[in-house]
Structure formats: structure tokens, C-alpha cells
């Protein structure tokens, strides 16, 4: 994708992207910035954990977003992260730097470590596969 940018700063307004991942401000035709990418990350994380998109149609208010968060049953950490990413107001979404500082990213003593043999290739059959269970 390319876009003509005038001298100085640019304020994107064109509606580009895949609808289920679009932030509300993009859907409504308002200007957007990196916080729209944070929204998209929240949708992607939701899809990876729950197995479906968080919304059937574009959400119109924060309450609709909160209802979607109720689908996450078992992981309070995942629910908290996605609730932050999927904030209606762009200014309420965390920055990517803030996300990298969260406890889940740094690791904690309560997280189980992956067995070492899972990452070691088997000489006869290649890398071993592990079944990953969802915690949601």
C-alpha cells in the first residue's frame, strides 16, 4: 500500500484493512495512529485464544466489547491484556512499550517452564511436537 503524504506530518483517514480487525476509529472514518494497530493485536490475540472473532459486527460502544470479553473463561491474564487492547477509546489502549513491560512478558515464577527435550530435535524424526492446551 502506498499513500501520498504532504510535507510535514500526515493524518491518515482512508479506510484500509480487514473489517474484523479494524479499530472503531478506522471503521468510522476518523484519523488513526498506532493505537489502531494495538486494537488489531487485541483482535488477533482473541482469535488465537478463543477461536473466533470477538465481534459479529463492528462494536459501537465499550459495553459491546466488554460482553465479548466474557467469552474468556479461564485466563484472567489473557482477559486483562485483551481488555486493555480492545478499548473503544484509542487513548485508553496501552502502547506497545507498555505491553512489553507487563508481567506476562517478563515471566513469573508461577509459569511452568517448557521441558528441555521439547526444543531438542530427535535425530531420527526431527523436532518433537507438543500439544498445547488452551488455558481459556
UniProtKB/TrEMBL annotation:
Name this protein carries in UniProt: Protein kinase domain-containing protein
Recorded superkingdom: Eukaryota
GO molecular function terms attached to this record: ATP binding; protein serine/threonine kinase activity
Protein keywords: ATP-binding, Kinase, Nucleotide-binding, Serine/threonine-protein kinase, Transferase
Every Protein kinase domain range: 1-105
Basic and acidic residues bias (residue ranges): 122-136
Region feature (Disordered): 107-136
Species per Swiss-Prot/TrEMBL record: Spumella elongata
InterPro entries from the UniProt entry: Aur-like, Kinase-like_dom_sf, Prot_kinase_dom
Amino acid at each position: 500500500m502506498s499513500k501520498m503524504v504532504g510535507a510535514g506530518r500526515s493524518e491518515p483517514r482512508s479506510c484500509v484493512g480487514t473489517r474484523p480487525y479494524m479499530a472503531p476509529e478506522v471503521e468510522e472514518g476518523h484519523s488513526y495512529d498506532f493505537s489502531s494497530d494495538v486494537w488489531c493485536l487485541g483482535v488477533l490475540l482473541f482469535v488465537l485464544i478463543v477461536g473466533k472473532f470477538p465481534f459479529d459486527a463492528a462494536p459501537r460502544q465499550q459495553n459491546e466489547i466488554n460482553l465479548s470479553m466474557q467469552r474468556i473463561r479461564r485466563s484472567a491474564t489473557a482477559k486483562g491484556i485483551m481488555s486493555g487492547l480492545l478499548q473503544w477509546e484509542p487513548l485508553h489502549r496501552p502502547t506497545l512499550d507498555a505491553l512489553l513491560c507487563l508481567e506476562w512478558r517478563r515471566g513469573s515464577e508461577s509459569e511452568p517452564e517448557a521441558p528441555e527435550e521439547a526444543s531438542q530435535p530427535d535425530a531420527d524424526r526431527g523436532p518433537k511436537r507438543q500439544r498445547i492446551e488452551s488455558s481459556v
